[in-house]
Design brief:
alpha/beta; Rossmann fold; 7 helices; about 30% helix; binds S-adenosylmethionine
């Protein structure tokens, strides 16, 4: 295993670790520098089987959690380019902040299309203006139009910006400040201090989401896609 993979696994383990030092660290961490767009729809149906791609380091209830790494909370360790499932079985597939990390996003979207049940929904979220972050690689950025180009035969049912221009500015400032500091301990400290000072600005995005231009420097975008056909009878309420 590469050292990059090892440090990523260690990061995921710290996120769910119950040790006192990790709990304390999580407690004093600043709030995230973004707010989610309240207009992003979330109420598309879940089925008996749903797939969450890329959920290492978290528990995702109601989904089969698939990731490259076999960590606590991950149900299936596999590559999203070759999903180890039969076709047409998931009513919902979540692929949130994963496409930028895969070698071949066309293959991944083909696989999502294949495993989605007829009438099922895929929720794709990807960064547009966001710092380089390797999980375990970082290959590219997306716009809503770019995601739609990969949509296969699926119908686009919703699209927009998940996190906005202020999120972009805040994450970039945080990264920039860290670039100026030579020691890891200083960077950790700066992340905490600057993070707490800047986070109140995140609420400006609640205003900016209403403007058409928000996407010019939007942070993450989303697209909801639907596979044609009627859901299987087993999914009927
Ligand atoms: C930025 S994280 C996603 C974060 C997650 N959606 C969340 O909100 O917490 C990207 C995840 O995708 C996983 N990943 C990267 N490439 C993958 C691939 N080819 N197949 C499956 N999972 C992959 C990484 O291990 C990582 O857990």
């Amino acid at each position: 295993m590469e050292s990059k993979d090892k440090s990523l696994e260690a990061l995921y383990r710290r996120r769910v670790s119950r040790s006192w030092s990790h709990r304390l660290r999580r407690l004093i961490q600043p709030p995230v520098p973004f707010v989610m767009n309240p207009a992003e729809p979330r109420n598309f149906p879940l089925g008996r089987w749903n797939l969450y791609i890329g959920g290492a380091g978290r528990m995702v209830e109601g989904y089969v959690n698939l990731d490259l790494y076999a960590l606590p909370g991950v149900d299936v360790a596999a590559d999203a380019e070759q999903l180890p499932f039969p076709s047409n079985i998931f009513l919902r597939v979540e692929c949130d902040a994963v496409l930028e990390h895969v070698r071949d996003p066309v293959k991944v979207m083909d696989e999502i299309y294949r495993v989605l049940a007829p009438g099922g929904y895929a929720h794709i979220v990807a960064p547009f203006c966001h710092p380089f972050h390797e999980y375990p690689r970082d290959y590219r950025r997306f716009t809503p139009d770019g995601i739609k180009e990969l949509a296969n035969r699926m119908e686009v049912v919703a699209e927009g910006w998940r996190t906005g221009p202020t999120a972009t500015v805040l994450v970039m400032v945080l990264e920039y400040v860290k670039l100026l500091l030579p020691f890891r301990a200083w960077r950790v400290m700066a992340h905490g201090v600057v993070g707490w000072l800047l986070f109140p600005f995140r609420y400006l995005d609640l205003l900016l989401f209403r403007t058409k231009a928000a996407g010019r420097i939007g942070n993450h975008c989303y697209v909801w896609l639907r596979k044609s056909g009627a859901p299987p009878e087993s999914e009927a309420e």
